[in-house]
Amino acid sequence: MKAPIPGNETQRLAALREYQILDTTTEQTYDDITALAAYLCKVPIAMISLVDESRQWFKSKLGLNERETPRDVAFCAHAILQSEPLIVRDALKDSRFADSALVTRAPHIRFYAGYPLSSPEGFALGTLCAIDRKPRQLSAEQKQAMQSLSRQVMALLELRRVSTRLAEVLENVKTLHGLLPICAWCKRIRDDQGYWSQVEAYVHAHMGADFTHGICPDCFEKMRPKAPAAE
């Protein structure tokens, strides 16, 4: 059964793209978490899956050859619909998955435990999941471990997002080094295309910063009406 589209899908996809993680190469830090999830849950398959517009893409995988699968057949597309983990003890007995190609054909999924990877804003980006080819269940300790590992995956993703933003800010700061062509009269700044912009607009475009306006004490004294001299 195809999973319904989340009500916040547009915002969710925008949040996912902020991490700039899709279609990146494998990284040992993510692979270590996947391997640990498989070991702790004693399953042959584990993945870090991110659900894009039309696919689920695996940042890390163990026990699978595929790098991605269509979203229409993805267990993870169902998992991102809820805040709690999605645990399917026997996919053949679950009407949502019994006819799925992932169940009836390779990799012959029977057990699935998907722990949502939720951004700080509350958007479910994908899952850390443990999969087996036979029905089973997780112990309380295994569930707790998976919850902890899913938080570690999200911490890595957040570190990536913050680092990317910082790099962009530093790159923009570099454009403010050196001499700026500024009008001596109106104080507008000329950009590389020859257009003149207000200082506020230029700084916002290059640094993302905005101005608040006030009057410094010296200017306030200059502008304040003078009291009439006593006769």
Structure overview:
This protein has about 230 residues and is of the alpha+beta class. The strands form two sheets. The chain has a six-stranded antiparallel beta sheet with strand order 3-2-1-6-5-4. A two-stranded antiparallel sheet has the order 7-8. A hairpin with a 5-residue loop joins strand 2 (about 55-60) and strand 3 (about 70). The protein is about 35% helix and about 20% strand. Helix 2 (about 30-40) packs antiparallel against helix 5. It folds into two domains: about 10-165, 2-Layer Sandwich (Beta-Lactamase); about 180-225, no CATH class.
Secondary-structure map:
Elements: H1 9-18, H2 28-41, E1 45-51, E2 55-62, E3 68-70, H3 75-79, E4 86-88, H4 101-104, E5 111-118, E6 124-132, H5 140-174, E7 189-190, E8 196-197, H6 199-207, H7 217-223
Antiparallel strand pairs: 1-2, 1-6, 2-3, 4-5, 5-6, 7-8
